[in-house]
Amino acid sequence: MQIAILPTFLLFLPAIVAACEGECIIGITNAFISNYTIPVNILLEQLTNEVVTKVLSNRRYTSPPISLMGPLLSAFHETAYAYLENAIFPSYFHGKCQRRDPENPDGPFVNPPGCPNPDCPVVCGTPGSMVHFYPKLRYIAFNATRHQLVDFASPGNEAYQAVERGVMSEIESGGGRRNTVSRAAGTRMPKQWRHEKAKSQIREIMGQVSSRLEKICGGMHGLPKCSWEKEMKEFILSYP
Ligand SMILES: *[C@@H]1O[C@H](CO)[C@@H](O)[C@H](O)[C@H]1NC(C)=O
Ligand SMILES: *[C@@H]1O[C@H](CO)[C@@H](O)[C@H](O)[C@H]1NC(C)=O
Question: Which residue has the least CA distance to atom 8 on ligand 1?
Answer without folding.
Answer: 231
